[in-house]
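Protein in question passed on here:
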Amino acid sequence: MTSTSDASDTMQETLQIQLSQPVLQEGSNGKPVEELQNLLFAWGIYTGAVDGEFGYQTEQSVKNFQRRVFLEEDGIVAERTWRALYTGAPVDMPELSQGCNGELVKKVQRILKSTCDYIGWIDGNFGSMTESALTSFQRRYEVPITGVVDESTWRALSKVK
């Protein structure tokens, strides 16, 4: 059985590994690209050859992954993308709740619309309709029903196709 301190030690080691990865982009090659391709394959996004060559297919897969975890879709694998690849989830996301507005709220509304939880306009305003849709989503995806887009909700939203 793993103790709490063992788990945090492992997480710390993983975080250190993540932070030491090079920035990758189209034209990069070698072992780090192979690791990237393996991670993308593990998350069901990359289907090409694991050849250590960062070409068009790898770049498109990176962009698809970045979209899934709410990162800028630039096809460049820097520190935040590496961390998201290791966890398979969004990283460093803000908490969103009623009264928030902006592009991230629009993204949440689009996902909630795709899951048939939200019937309002995609306006970027987190109001009562968005909160109601979010609690419905949280209930169905078995995450704490808070009406707030927190870490567990970001993770669940990132799994919606």
